[in-house]
Protein backbone atom coordinates (compact mmCIF):
# COMPACT_ATOMS: atom_id res chain seq x y z
CA UNK A 1 0.00 0.00 0.00
CA UNK A 2 2.85 2.39 0.82
CA UNK A 3 4.41 1.71 -2.58
CA UNK A 4 1.08 2.40 -4.33
CA UNK A 5 0.71 5.63 -2.35
CA UNK A 6 4.12 6.99 -3.43
CA UNK A 7 3.80 5.79 -7.04
CA UNK A 8 0.40 7.47 -7.43
CA UNK A 9 1.72 10.67 -5.85
CA UNK A 10 4.83 10.97 -8.02
CA UNK A 11 2.96 10.04 -11.22
CA UNK A 12 0.50 12.87 -10.54
CA UNK A 13 3.38 15.27 -9.81
CA UNK A 14 5.11 14.33 -13.08
CA UNK A 15 1.83 14.98 -14.92
CA UNK A 16 1.86 18.53 -13.51
CA UNK A 17 -0.97 18.13 -11.01
CA UNK A 18 -0.65 20.62 -8.08
CA UNK A 19 0.97 19.22 -4.94
CA UNK A 20 -2.11 19.49 -2.71
CA UNK A 21 -4.35 17.70 -5.21
CA UNK A 22 -1.67 15.07 -5.92
CA UNK A 23 -1.41 14.24 -2.23
CA UNK A 24 -5.18 14.03 -1.80
CA UNK A 25 -5.85 11.96 -4.93
CA UNK A 26 -2.97 9.56 -4.18
CA UNK A 27 -4.30 9.07 -0.65
CA UNK A 28 -7.87 8.45 -1.86
CA UNK A 29 -6.67 5.97 -4.53
CA UNK A 30 -4.77 4.02 -1.86
CA UNK A 31 -7.75 4.00 0.51
CA UNK A 32 -10.10 2.84 -2.26
CA UNK A 33 -7.66 0.14 -3.39
CA UNK A 34 -7.32 -1.19 0.15
CA UNK A 35 -11.08 -1.05 0.72
CA UNK A 36 -10.87 -1.15 4.52
CA UNK A 37 -11.31 2.47 5.64
CA UNK A 38 -14.83 4.00 5.27
CA UNK A 39 -14.84 6.88 2.78
CA UNK A 40 -16.58 9.06 5.36
CA UNK A 41 -13.32 9.08 7.31
CA UNK A 42 -11.50 10.96 4.53
CA UNK A 43 -13.21 14.38 4.97
CA UNK A 44 -13.17 13.89 8.73
CA UNK A 45 -9.40 13.38 8.77
CA UNK A 46 -8.85 16.36 6.48
CA UNK A 47 -11.09 18.62 8.57
CA UNK A 48 -9.53 17.60 11.88
CA UNK A 49 -6.05 18.38 10.51
CA UNK A 50 -7.09 21.99 9.88
CA UNK A 51 -9.32 22.43 12.95
CA UNK A 52 -6.56 23.92 15.08
CA UNK A 53 -6.19 27.20 16.94
CA UNK A 54 -2.48 27.18 16.11
CA UNK A 55 -3.08 26.93 12.35
CA UNK A 56 -5.43 29.90 12.54
CA UNK A 57 -2.28 32.03 12.35
CA UNK A 58 -1.64 31.02 8.73
CA UNK A 59 -4.35 33.10 6.97
CA UNK A 60 -3.60 36.09 9.19
CA UNK A 61 0.14 36.05 8.45
CA UNK A 62 -0.69 35.62 4.76
CA UNK A 63 -2.99 38.64 4.97
CA UNK A 64 -0.28 40.65 6.72
CA UNK A 65 2.12 40.01 3.83
CA UNK A 66 -0.44 41.15 1.25
CA UNK A 67 -1.25 44.31 3.22
CA UNK A 68 2.45 45.16 3.52
CA UNK A 69 2.92 44.81 -0.22
CA UNK A 70 -0.20 46.73 -1.29
CA UNK A 71 0.17 49.54 1.26
CA UNK A 72 3.80 50.34 0.43
CA UNK A 73 5.18 49.26 3.81
CA UNK A 74 7.66 47.00 2.02
CA UNK A 75 9.00 49.96 0.03
CA UNK A 76 9.51 51.95 3.24
CA UNK A 77 11.54 49.12 4.79
CA UNK A 78 13.61 48.76 1.61
CA UNK A 79 14.35 52.50 1.52
CA UNK A 80 15.46 52.42 5.16
CA UNK A 81 17.82 49.50 4.52
CA UNK A 82 19.09 51.30 1.41
CA UNK A 83 19.90 54.42 3.44
CA UNK A 84 22.12 52.39 5.78
CA UNK A 85 24.10 50.15 3.44
CA UNK A 86 22.96 50.86 -0.12
CA UNK A 87 25.89 53.21 -0.81
CA UNK A 88 28.60 50.52 -0.41
CA UNK A 89 30.01 48.29 -3.16
CA UNK A 90 27.38 45.63 -3.79
CA UNK A 91 25.16 47.59 -1.45
CA UNK A 92 21.89 46.70 -3.16
CA UNK A 93 22.52 43.04 -2.38
CA UNK A 94 22.82 43.95 1.32
CA UNK A 95 19.63 45.97 1.04
CA UNK A 96 17.79 42.94 -0.36
CA UNK A 97 18.94 40.64 2.44
CA UNK A 98 18.30 43.20 5.19
CA UNK A 99 14.84 43.95 3.79
CA UNK A 100 14.10 40.22 3.67
CA UNK A 101 15.07 39.90 7.32
CA UNK A 102 12.87 42.82 8.35
CA UNK A 103 9.91 41.53 6.33
CA UNK A 104 10.48 38.05 7.74
CA UNK A 105 9.84 39.53 11.16
CA UNK A 106 6.33 40.47 10.07
CA UNK A 107 4.76 38.14 7.50
CA UNK A 108 6.29 34.66 7.98
CA UNK A 109 5.75 33.57 4.36
CA UNK A 110 8.77 33.04 2.10
CA UNK A 111 6.89 33.22 -1.25
CA UNK A 112 5.03 36.38 -0.17
CA UNK A 113 8.26 38.05 0.97
CA UNK A 114 10.01 37.03 -2.26
CA UNK A 115 7.20 38.44 -4.41
CA UNK A 116 7.23 41.74 -2.53
CA UNK A 117 11.03 42.04 -2.63
CA UNK A 118 11.22 41.12 -6.31
CA UNK A 119 8.72 43.78 -7.34
CA UNK A 120 10.70 46.46 -5.49
CA UNK A 121 14.35 45.37 -5.66
CA UNK A 122 14.89 43.55 -8.96
CA UNK A 123 14.21 46.53 -11.30
CA UNK A 124 16.46 48.77 -9.17
CA UNK A 125 19.29 46.24 -9.14
CA UNK A 126 19.14 45.67 -12.90
CA UNK A 127 19.31 49.45 -13.50
CA UNK A 128 22.45 49.61 -11.36
CA UNK A 129 24.22 46.93 -13.39
CA UNK A 130 23.43 43.72 -11.50
CA UNK A 131 22.61 40.76 -13.80
CA UNK A 132 18.91 39.87 -13.68
CA UNK A 133 19.75 36.24 -12.88
CA UNK A 134 21.75 37.28 -9.80
CA UNK A 135 19.05 39.73 -8.70
CA UNK A 136 16.40 36.99 -8.98
CA UNK A 137 18.49 34.47 -7.03
CA UNK A 138 19.21 37.05 -4.34
CA UNK A 139 15.53 37.99 -3.89
CA UNK A 140 14.64 34.30 -3.61
CA UNK A 141 17.34 33.77 -0.98
CA UNK A 142 16.34 36.91 0.92
CA UNK A 143 12.70 35.84 0.88
CA UNK A 144 13.59 32.39 2.20
CA UNK A 145 14.86 33.98 5.43
CA UNK A 146 11.23 34.91 6.14
CA UNK A 147 10.40 31.39 7.33
CA UNK A 148 13.41 31.19 9.66
CA UNK A 149 13.12 34.55 11.44
CA UNK A 150 9.91 34.64 13.51
CA UNK A 151 7.05 34.66 12.87
CA UNK A 152 7.09 31.68 10.51
CA UNK A 153 4.21 29.80 8.91
CA UNK A 154 6.17 26.49 8.66
CA UNK A 155 7.00 26.79 12.37
CA UNK A 156 3.30 27.29 13.14
CA UNK A 157 2.42 24.15 11.17
CA UNK A 158 5.31 22.15 12.63
CA UNK A 159 4.39 23.13 16.17
CA UNK A 160 0.77 22.17 15.54
CA UNK A 161 1.42 18.69 14.12
CA UNK A 162 4.34 17.78 16.40
CA UNK A 163 3.03 19.30 19.66
CA UNK A 164 6.11 21.52 19.97
CA UNK A 165 5.79 25.00 21.49
CA UNK A 166 5.39 27.43 18.58
CA UNK A 167 6.68 30.24 20.79
CA UNK A 168 9.90 28.33 21.50
CA UNK A 169 10.30 27.55 17.80
CA UNK A 170 9.94 31.26 17.04
CA UNK A 171 12.57 32.12 19.63
CA UNK A 172 14.85 29.35 18.39
CA UNK A 173 14.78 30.81 14.88
CA UNK A 174 16.04 34.27 15.86
CA UNK A 175 19.80 33.64 16.04
CA UNK A 176 19.93 31.20 13.07
CA UNK A 177 17.89 33.65 10.97
CA UNK A 178 20.18 36.57 11.77
CA UNK A 179 23.27 34.39 11.23
CA UNK A 180 22.01 33.23 7.82
CA UNK A 181 21.24 36.83 6.86
CA UNK A 182 24.80 37.87 7.72
CA UNK A 183 26.24 34.91 5.79
CA UNK A 184 24.07 35.81 2.79
CA UNK A 185 25.52 39.34 2.88
CA UNK A 186 29.07 37.99 3.11
CA UNK A 187 28.41 35.69 0.14
CA UNK A 188 26.88 38.58 -1.81
CA UNK A 189 29.87 40.79 -1.01
CA UNK A 190 32.32 38.18 -2.30
CA UNK A 191 30.29 37.61 -5.48
CA UNK A 192 29.86 41.33 -6.22
CA UNK A 193 33.57 42.09 -5.75
CA UNK A 194 34.76 39.01 -7.64
CA UNK A 195 32.44 39.55 -10.63
CA UNK A 196 32.26 43.35 -10.37
CA UNK A 197 28.47 43.40 -10.08
CA UNK A 198 26.60 46.67 -9.74
CA UNK A 199 27.44 50.26 -9.02
CA UNK A 200 26.60 52.30 -5.94
CA UNK A 201 23.92 54.97 -6.05
CA UNK A 202 26.31 57.27 -4.24
CA UNK A 203 29.86 57.17 -2.94
CA UNK A 204 29.11 58.01 0.67
CA UNK A 205 26.61 57.62 3.46
CA UNK A 206 23.86 60.25 3.38
CA UNK A 207 22.73 61.21 6.88
CA UNK A 208 19.77 63.22 5.57
CA UNK A 209 18.55 60.25 3.50
CA UNK A 210 18.96 58.00 6.54
CA UNK A 211 16.91 60.32 8.78
CA UNK A 212 14.20 60.77 6.15
CA UNK A 213 13.85 57.03 5.44
CA UNK A 214 13.97 56.22 9.16
CA UNK A 215 11.09 58.59 9.86
CA UNK A 216 9.05 56.94 7.11
CA UNK A 217 9.92 53.41 8.24
CA UNK A 218 9.79 53.75 12.01
CA UNK A 219 6.18 52.59 12.35
CA UNK A 220 6.58 49.55 10.05
CA UNK A 221 9.77 48.71 11.96
CA UNK A 222 7.72 48.49 15.15
CA UNK A 223 5.69 45.59 13.71
CA UNK A 224 8.30 42.84 14.34
CA UNK A 225 9.09 44.42 17.71
CA UNK A 226 5.43 44.17 18.72
CA UNK A 227 5.01 40.64 17.34
CA UNK A 228 8.19 39.06 18.71
CA UNK A 229 8.21 41.21 21.85
CA UNK A 230 4.66 40.22 22.69
CA UNK A 231 5.51 36.54 22.35
CA UNK A 232 8.70 36.96 24.40
CA UNK A 233 6.85 38.67 27.25
CA UNK A 234 3.92 36.26 27.11
CA UNK A 235 1.50 39.09 26.34
CA UNK A 236 -0.05 37.02 23.56
CA UNK A 237 0.31 33.69 21.77
CA UNK A 238 1.83 33.28 18.29
CA UNK A 239 -1.69 32.90 16.87
CA UNK A 240 -2.86 36.08 18.56
CA UNK A 241 0.27 37.82 17.27
CA UNK A 242 -0.85 37.09 13.69
CA UNK A 243 -4.12 38.94 14.30
CA UNK A 244 -2.27 41.86 15.91
CA UNK A 245 0.03 42.01 12.86
CA UNK A 246 -3.00 42.31 10.56
CA UNK A 247 -4.62 45.02 12.67
CA UNK A 248 -1.37 46.98 13.00
CA UNK A 249 -0.52 46.92 9.28
CA UNK A 250 -4.14 47.75 8.38
CA UNK A 251 -4.08 50.79 10.67
CA UNK A 252 -0.83 51.96 9.05
CA UNK A 253 -2.11 51.45 5.53
CA UNK A 254 -5.64 52.83 6.00
CA UNK A 255 -5.30 55.62 8.54
CA UNK A 256 -1.65 56.61 9.05
CA UNK A 257 -0.20 56.56 5.52
CA UNK A 258 -3.53 56.30 3.66
CA UNK A 259 -1.81 54.28 0.97
CA UNK A 260 -4.79 51.93 0.64
CA UNK A 261 -8.52 52.67 0.67
CA UNK A 262 -11.43 50.69 2.06
CA UNK A 263 -12.41 49.76 -1.50
CA UNK A 264 -9.03 48.02 -1.86
CA UNK A 265 -9.74 45.65 1.02
CA UNK A 266 -11.86 43.24 -1.02
CA UNK A 267 -9.01 42.51 -3.46
CA UNK A 268 -6.49 42.33 -0.59
CA UNK A 269 -8.64 39.86 1.34
CA UNK A 270 -9.31 37.81 -1.80
CA UNK A 271 -5.59 37.48 -2.55
CA UNK A 272 -4.95 36.36 1.04
CA UNK A 273 -7.86 33.90 0.90
CA UNK A 274 -6.53 32.28 -2.29
CA UNK A 275 -3.00 31.99 -0.86
CA UNK A 276 -4.30 30.63 2.45
CA UNK A 277 -6.60 28.19 0.67
CA UNK A 278 -3.67 26.74 -1.25
CA UNK A 279 -1.68 26.27 1.96
CA UNK A 280 -4.58 24.75 3.91
CA UNK A 281 -5.38 22.34 1.07
CA UNK A 282 -1.79 21.12 1.21
CA UNK A 283 -2.04 20.75 5.00
CA UNK A 284 -5.30 18.75 4.79
CA UNK A 285 -4.10 16.47 1.98
CA UNK A 286 -0.65 16.00 3.56
CA UNK A 287 -2.22 15.01 6.85
CA UNK A 288 -4.27 12.31 5.10
CA UNK A 289 -1.14 11.11 3.29
CA UNK A 290 0.84 11.03 6.55
CA UNK A 291 -1.98 9.20 8.36
CA UNK A 292 -1.86 6.39 5.78
CA UNK A 293 1.91 6.11 6.21
CA UNK A 294 1.62 5.93 10.00
CA UNK A 295 -1.26 3.41 9.88
CA UNK A 296 0.93 1.10 7.77
CA UNK A 297 3.86 1.31 10.24
CA UNK A 298 6.04 3.36 7.90
CA UNK A 299 7.76 5.15 10.85
CA UNK A 300 8.91 1.82 12.29
CA UNK A 301 10.02 0.59 8.87
CA UNK A 302 12.01 3.77 8.18
CA UNK A 303 13.52 3.80 11.68
CA UNK A 304 14.64 0.18 11.36
CA UNK A 305 16.07 0.88 7.91
CA UNK A 306 18.12 3.86 9.13
CA UNK A 307 19.41 2.22 12.33
CA UNK A 308 20.25 -1.01 10.47
CA UNK A 309 22.89 0.93 8.55
CA UNK A 310 24.25 2.81 11.57
CA UNK A 311 22.96 3.89 14.96
CA UNK A 312 25.31 6.88 15.08
CA UNK A 313 23.37 10.05 16.00
CA UNK A 314 25.25 12.05 13.35
CA UNK A 315 24.40 9.49 10.67
CA UNK A 316 20.73 9.56 11.66
CA UNK A 317 20.63 13.38 11.55
CA UNK A 318 22.46 13.33 8.20
CA UNK A 319 19.85 10.96 6.73
CA UNK A 320 16.99 13.13 8.04
CA UNK A 321 18.53 16.21 6.41
CA UNK A 322 19.07 14.35 3.13
CA UNK A 323 15.42 13.24 3.13
CA UNK A 324 14.27 16.84 3.44
CA UNK A 325 16.85 18.34 1.06
CA UNK A 326 16.15 15.82 -1.71
CA UNK A 327 12.42 15.74 -0.99
CA UNK A 328 12.29 19.54 -0.99
CA UNK A 329 13.40 19.56 -4.62
CA UNK A 330 10.22 17.77 -5.66
CA UNK A 331 7.62 18.39 -2.94
CA UNK A 332 6.37 21.70 -1.54
CA UNK A 333 7.86 22.41 1.89
CA UNK A 334 4.70 22.33 4.01
CA UNK A 335 3.57 19.08 2.41
CA UNK A 336 6.97 17.50 3.05
CA UNK A 337 6.90 18.76 6.64
CA UNK A 338 3.48 17.28 7.40
CA UNK A 339 4.30 13.99 5.66
CA UNK A 340 7.58 13.29 7.44
CA UNK A 341 7.88 15.29 10.68
CA UNK A 342 5.55 12.97 12.67
CA UNK A 343 7.64 10.06 11.39
CA UNK A 344 11.14 11.50 11.78
CA UNK A 345 10.78 13.51 15.01
CA UNK A 346 10.77 10.41 17.27
CA UNK A 347 13.81 9.08 15.39
CA UNK A 348 15.65 12.40 15.86
CA UNK A 349 14.75 12.58 19.55
CA UNK A 350 15.95 8.99 19.93
CA UNK A 351 19.28 10.20 18.53
CA UNK A 352 19.41 12.84 21.29
CA UNK A 353 18.26 15.88 19.31
CA UNK A 354 16.28 18.61 21.07
CA UNK A 355 12.81 19.00 19.44
CA UNK A 356 13.30 22.77 19.09
CA UNK A 357 16.62 22.24 17.30
CA UNK A 358 14.93 19.62 15.13
CA UNK A 359 12.16 22.06 14.24
CA UNK A 360 14.52 24.87 13.25
CA UNK A 361 16.66 22.40 11.30
CA UNK A 362 13.61 21.25 9.32
CA UNK A 363 12.58 24.84 8.57
CA UNK A 364 16.07 25.59 7.19
CA UNK A 365 15.72 22.49 5.02
CA UNK A 366 12.41 23.86 3.74
CA UNK A 367 14.18 27.16 2.98
CA UNK A 368 16.69 25.19 0.89
CA UNK A 369 13.76 23.60 -0.94
CA UNK A 370 12.40 27.03 -1.88
CA UNK A 371 15.63 27.67 -3.84
CA UNK A 372 16.06 24.30 -5.57
CA UNK A 373 14.16 23.31 -8.75
CA UNK A 374 11.98 21.79 -9.97
CA UNK A 375 9.67 23.04 -7.18
CA UNK A 376 11.80 25.93 -5.80
CA UNK A 377 8.82 28.18 -5.15
CA UNK A 378 10.80 31.29 -4.12
CA UNK A 379 13.19 30.95 -7.05
CA UNK A 380 10.24 30.49 -9.41
CA UNK A 381 8.49 33.60 -8.06
CA UNK A 382 11.68 35.68 -8.33
CA UNK A 383 12.41 34.45 -11.87
CA UNK A 384 8.87 35.25 -12.99
CA UNK A 385 9.26 38.79 -11.68
CA UNK A 386 12.72 39.27 -13.23
CA UNK A 387 11.88 37.59 -16.54
CA UNK A 388 14.83 35.19 -16.42
CA UNK A 389 15.03 31.44 -17.00
CA UNK A 390 14.94 29.22 -13.93
CA UNK A 391 18.13 27.33 -14.84
CA UNK A 392 20.09 30.58 -15.24
CA UNK A 393 19.00 31.87 -11.83
CA UNK A 394 19.69 28.49 -10.24
CA UNK A 395 23.40 28.85 -10.98
CA UNK A 396 23.40 32.19 -9.16
CA UNK A 397 21.44 30.66 -6.26
CA UNK A 398 23.99 27.91 -5.57
CA UNK A 399 26.13 30.04 -3.16
CA UNK A 400 23.03 30.82 -1.09
CA UNK A 401 22.01 27.16 -0.99
CA UNK A 402 25.53 26.34 0.25
CA UNK A 403 25.16 29.00 2.97
CA UNK A 404 21.94 27.36 4.17
CA UNK A 405 23.65 23.94 4.16
CA UNK A 406 26.51 25.44 6.20
CA UNK A 407 23.95 26.82 8.67
CA UNK A 408 22.48 23.32 9.01
CA UNK A 409 25.90 21.95 9.91
CA UNK A 410 26.41 24.71 12.49
CA UNK A 411 23.14 24.13 14.35
CA UNK A 412 23.69 20.37 14.39
CA UNK A 413 27.21 20.78 15.79
CA UNK A 414 26.30 23.71 18.06
CA UNK A 415 22.61 23.33 19.05
CA UNK A 416 22.95 26.16 21.57
CA UNK A 417 22.69 28.53 18.58
CA UNK A 418 19.01 27.54 18.54
CA UNK A 419 18.33 26.87 22.22
CA UNK A 420 20.11 29.89 23.74
CA UNK A 421 17.24 32.39 23.55
CA UNK A 422 14.43 29.92 24.45
CA UNK A 423 16.42 28.72 27.48
CA UNK A 424 17.30 32.30 28.45
CA UNK A 425 13.66 33.40 28.34
CA UNK A 426 12.48 30.28 30.17
CA UNK A 427 15.03 30.74 32.95
CA UNK A 428 14.08 34.39 33.41
CA UNK A 429 10.35 33.67 33.85
TrEMBL record:
Major place of residence: membrane
Originating organism: Rossellomorea aquimaris
InterPro entries documented for this protein: DctM, TRAP_DctM
GO molecular function, one term: transmembrane transporter activity
Sequence ranges assigned to domain TRAP C4-dicarboxylate transport system permease DctM subunit in this UniProt record: 6-417
The protein's name in its UniProt record: TRAP transporter large permease
Keywords linked to the UniProt accession: Cell inner membrane, Cell membrane, Membrane, Transmembrane, Transmembrane helix
Record-annotated membrane-spanning stretches: 50-68, 169-192, 217-236, 242-260, 272-294, 314-345, 357-382, 397-421
Keyword RNA-binding: no
PANTHER family named among the record's database cross-references: SIALIC ACID TRAP TRANSPORTER PERMEASE PROTEIN SIAT-RELATED (PTHR33362)
CC per GO annotation: plasma membrane
Subcellular location field: Cell inner membrane
Bilayer topology annotation: Multi-pass membrane protein
